[in-house]
Amino acid sequence: MIKEKLSNRALRLAASMLTRHGFHVSEERYSAAYLKRYAFEINTFVDVGVYKGSPVFYEVFKDKKLVLIDPQPDTMEQAADSVRGLDFDYIQSGAGATRGVATLSLEGPSSSLMKRIDWKRQPGQTIEIEVATLDELLAKKEYAGPFGIKVDTEGFDLDVLKGAEQTLRETHFVFTEASLRRRFEGGYRFSELIAYMAEQGFEVADVIPHRAHNRLVDVLFVRSGSPALEPNAVPVRAIA
């Protein structure tokens, strides 16, 4: 108890000092503790764009079916530790608005099917991959809804969601990386993503800024009418 009180006091003092220098201090929202407060009731969690995995979400939904979708050849080698002991399926495929073949630039967590305009360096190795719609990929094994979906596909996020119209009808939330500024050739505008999700019956419940820059954010969409949209349903705690 004494240790906890001292720790809280130290946190408050540090937060107060940072506030005086123009910073706002609050809890980490990209965390299992924070996301658990939404109390989403789903049967299947779909992770599109896996790389090393999404342990924050795997912790929240560790007793649910996990479906990992990523076209990179070393995905399961990279993500093995984060899904060990969990009930998961891995589908090696790209996801998009239509079925086809596309070129993937291999850049680790920044691998993309889009051509970047926000980097000066040339892309590294490229490979040809198969792309299918999320509706097709999930229908093959008849996964049970309701679904929760995370999308992190470096600029291809709206394309992924456009290929998921049937799945979205059974989806409680979508957590996606979203570009605020133009980062890719032919990339979507942020307003287009918001408008598309509104057409599918979703509203923005939270926006989590990127720690290093303001070119992108993480956006949590929840179905219209969800309790998560009620005022102060999931409060953020300031530390100061």
UniProtKB/TrEMBL annotation:
GO terms for molecular function: O-methyltransferase activity. It comes from the Bacteria. Gene3D superfamilies: Vaccinia Virus protein VP39 (3.40.50.150). InterPro entries: FkbM_Methyltransferase, FkbM_mtfrase, SAM-dependent_MTases_sf. The lineage of its organism: Bacteria, Pseudomonadati, Pseudomonadota, Alphaproteobacteria, Hyphomicrobiales. Residues 47-203 form the Methyltransferase FkbM domain. This is Methyltransferase FkbM domain-containing protein. Pfam families: Methyltransf_21.
